[in-house]
Write a structure and sequence with these properties.
The structure holds two protein chains of two kinds. By secondary structure, chain A is of the alpha/beta class. Chain A is built from four helices and seven strands. In chain A, strand 6 and strand 7 form a beta hairpin. In chain B, the strands form two sheets. Chain B has a five-stranded mixed β-sheet with strand order 3-2-1-4-5, sandwiched between helices. In chain B, strands 8-7-6-9-10 form a five-stranded mixed β-sheet, sandwiched between helices. The chains are: A alpha/beta, B alpha/beta. At the A-B interface, helix 3 of A face helix 6 and helix 8 of B.
Chain lengths: ~150, ~350
């Protein structure tokens, strides 16, 4: 687990770019933090770093937007999801364990649907534009994002 | 624009299950939306999951739309269905139903873009006003500024780069303790408030474009609210805080709308989409039009939310006789306004 302090949007983006180097197709990244913490900023920076071009508008309403980078990138938002049954109904669950990179905002809302292994990025607002960002891996080390 | 008979419209792209019938000249004969009919029975609360269970409700909603028109299946000249953009699972319910019904009746099927429905709503509201029209489509999922040159001819001038305006209302409203979606509660809470009580930052992009951004406002509002709760900023009355926040969103929306109308010399501006029900937004647009001698179309609130009337109306101007080898329409979750649908693209 690594915790970083970022003092601007640009620093958050730089951290996300650095982090994205570890991601391969099959990686699952949950993003946790209060409204305005910068989950979408982080997710967009990861998306750009893995080759997504064009706008990456908020997936809150549509639950998921599909992008193409060096592999498929699924930008998801669990803000409107209140149960695992809804997740299944919305047809999102298969993407959690498929190829491509999943960037899942408000991941704590679907805790029991997390795949066996992945990353959790927790962002806390420490002051106006200051953020504390904790990046932690969960699940066995021989996991999907290692590509093994 | 006449079809040989009425057109049935079906909309299931998100939370509403809706069906409507348009007359051969595109007027609306019936307009049924599930959430309206059952809200009362459920005491105003429909669980989110239940609200998406289109498949169980659609047949009854269609039957109701037909009998309210009143027409029978045999009278229909075609079926129009929302094919995108939207949630794929939801879209598929409407598309599968419409495909089966059109096949069974032997009538043409028209795949309609949901945003085209919204963009056509001002023309449906005020059929006398001509084109071009500048339509601001604002909802929980969309924020787009669209030039409508003629029915079915669009140019998208701007769109949000991050959050939709309605999403910003909903999320900040939830922080304040309002139920999601929070747009109507915000509208009421800010009604008599002083809109200049709190200064929120607005995002403007360099250059001459008309894109929008609302995530910066959302973050600033969340931080400001938190500080006032913790006594780090002076207390402000709820109604004043909400009015100021609301005004910031409305200003961000309308400054692009008005600037585009000036730049392009367009005489008619219009609102569409769920957020077009916001009374502050309606007031600002109406007042600006009066002051500048332009026409403003603010559709009745029930036509702003997702509905099938707009889909049926688009179906009636897009209707074509069945050629016998019509391409099979399908759900297109990311279908952008003005883009040809995949089934029309020949490779």
């Amino acid at each position: 687990m690594i915790t970083s302090l970022c003092h601007s949007v640009a620093e958050t983006e730089a951290l996300a770019v650095e982090f994205s180097r570890t991601l391969q197709s099959g990686a699952w990244v949950g993003l946790i933090g209060p409204l305005g913490a910068g989950k979408s900023v982080f997710a967009r920076a990861v998306g750009r770093a893995v080759g997504v071009r064009g706008e990456m508008p908020s997936p809150t309403y549509t639950l998921m937007t599909v992008h193409t980078g060096r592999c498929p990138v699924y930008h998801m938002d669990m803000y409107r999801i209140s149960s695992d049954a809804e997740l299944e109904f919305a047809g999102i669950l298969p993407y959690f364990s498929g190829p491509g990179i999943c960037l899942v905002e408000w991941a704590e809302r679907v805790r029991s649907a997390w795949p066996p292994a992945g990353w959790i990025v927790t962002i806390a607002i420490t002051r106006d534009s200051d953020r504390s960002i904790e990046i932690a891996r969960f699940g066995p080390a021989t996991n999907r994002q290692d590509g093994t | 624009m006449f079809t040989p008979g009425p057109i049935l419209g079906i909309e299931t792209s998100c939370d509403e299950t809706a069906a409507a019938v348009a007359s051969p000249d595109g007027r609306i004969l019936s307009n049924i939306i599930f959430s309206q009919t059952l809200h009362a029975a459920y005491g105003g609360v429909v669980p989110e999951l239940a609200s998406r269970e289109h498949s169980g409700r659609l047949p009854a909603i269609v039957t109701e739309a037909l009998s309210a028109a009143p027409i029978g299946w045999g009278d229909l000249a075609g079926i129009a269905v929302t094919a995108g953009p939207g949630l794929v699972g939801c879209l598929l319910v409407g598309v599968a139903y419409a495909r089966a019904a059109a096949r069974a009746r032997g009538i043409p099927l028209i795949g309609v873009n949901h945003l085209e429905g919204h963009a056509h709503t001002p023309a449906l509201t005020d059929p006398e006003l001509g084109y071009p029209q500048l339509v601001l489509i604002v909802s929980g999922g969309h924020t787009s500024l669209v030039m409508v040159e003629a029915p079915g001819q669009f140019q998208c001038l701007g769109r949000t780069r991050d959050d939709a305006a309605g999403e910003c209302f909903d999320k900040v409203g939830k922080l304040l303790g309002f139920d999601y979606p929070a747009g109507p509660a915000i509208d009421r809470a800010g009604e008599d408030g002083a809109a200049n009580a709190v200064a929120f930052p607005k995002t403007r992009f360099e250059g001459q474009g008309y894109d929008f951004s609302f995530s910066g406002i959302k973050t600033a509002a969340a931080l400001d609210w938190d500080k006032r709760q913790r006594g780090l900023l002076p207390a402000v009355e709820m109604k004043d805080w909400v009015a100021s926040f609301e005004q910031t969103i409305v200003d961000s929306l309308t400054q692009n709308l008005f600037r585009a109308a000036d730049d392009q010399s367009i005489p008619t501006v219009a609102l569409a989409g769920g957020v077009a029900r916001n009374r502050r937004l309606r007031r600002v647009v109406t007042a600006w039009a009066e002051r500048t001698g332009r026409h403003a179309i603010v559709p009745p609130p029930e036509w702003c939310a997702d509905n099938a009337a707009m889909i049926a109306a688009v179906g009636s101007y897009r209707w074509q006789p069945d050629s016998g080898d019509a391409p099979l329409i399908d759900a297109v979750p990311n279908w952008g306004l003005g883009e040809p649908p995949p089934w029309m693209v020949t490779t």
